[in-house]
Design brief:
The complex is a heterodimer of chains A (137) and B (72). Chain A is mainly alpha-helical. Chain A is built from 4 helices and no strands. Chain A has helices spanning 5-28, 38-65, 73-103, 108-135. The longest helix of chain A has 31 residues, at 73-103. Chain B has 5 helices and 2 strands. Chain B has 72 residues and is mainly alpha-helical. The chains are: A mainly alpha (137), B mainly alpha (72).
Chain lengths: 137, 72
């Protein structure tokens, strides 16, 4: 496959996000109580930190291999469409998180429905962009 | 792709061949887009903006309608 710089970045982000937060959710689910525990907050901070570092190092590595990092109108159009697709999921997720907050006690369920919604929105955004790169936009 | 049943097609591949077998990358560099975008245009998977379409036609030194067509 002949990928653009931005497609490579998207694949990197997809793998990094899926791995990091997949591991996070495996560790924190099922919930141990109604509220988020301090060690779960620490785990979240760790996962976020590792994700940021992995992303920065990955982008540097991709930029070294592929020096053509320019963006054109097709890249911007695909990014806009992907962002729109992700926004639908995020808006639905925020509504679901609000309903969860009203229906449950403690903050664990609310924060994790919100986090899962954000993660799902990101994944939808990335996957839809990758699909548009492959089939045209 | 068109939204009213029509679609924009083009002769970019033919025009490149007529211009000394210009590569997709050469055309992309002269137009100011990525090689993948040129490839997507040639495969009729992406309809460029009017600005990019004019730049493509200018590279080949022909009017816009010699490169792009709207087919219903």
């Amino acid at each position: 496959m002949n990928l653009t710089f931005h497609e490579k970045n998207l694949w990197l982000l997809l793998v990094a996000l899926g791995t990091a937060f997949g591991w996070y959710f495996v560790r924190v689910l099922p919930p141990q109580g109604p509220d988020v525990m301090p060690h779960q907050i620490a785990l979240f901070v760790l996962v976020t930190g590792v994700l940021v570092v992995a992303e920065v190092l990955g982008i540097i590595a991709i930029a070294i291999v592929d020096r053509r990092a320019e963006r054109d109108e097709r890249d911007r159009l695909i990014e806009l469409k992907g962002t729109r697709n992700g926004a639908y999921v995020l808006a639905t997720g925020v509504f679901a998180a609000l309903c969860t907050a009203l229906a449950t006690t403690g903050n664990f369920a609310f924060t994790h429905v919100l986090l899962a919604s954000w993660l799902l929105a990101q994944l939808v955004e990335i996957v839809s962009q990758l699909a548009m790169y492959r089939r045209g936009a | 792709m068109g939204k009213a049943g029509g679609r924009i097609t083009n002769d970019i591949r033919t025009m490149r061949a007529r211009h000394g077998d210009m590569t997709q990358q050469e055309l992309a560099d002269r137009v100011g887009v990525t090689r993948q975008t040129v490839n997507a245009m040639e495969a009729n998977k992406y309809s460029p903006s009017l600005e990019v379409a004019f730049r493509v036609a200018r590279v080949f030194g022909v009017p816009l309608e010699r490169v792009f067509r709207y087919e219903v």
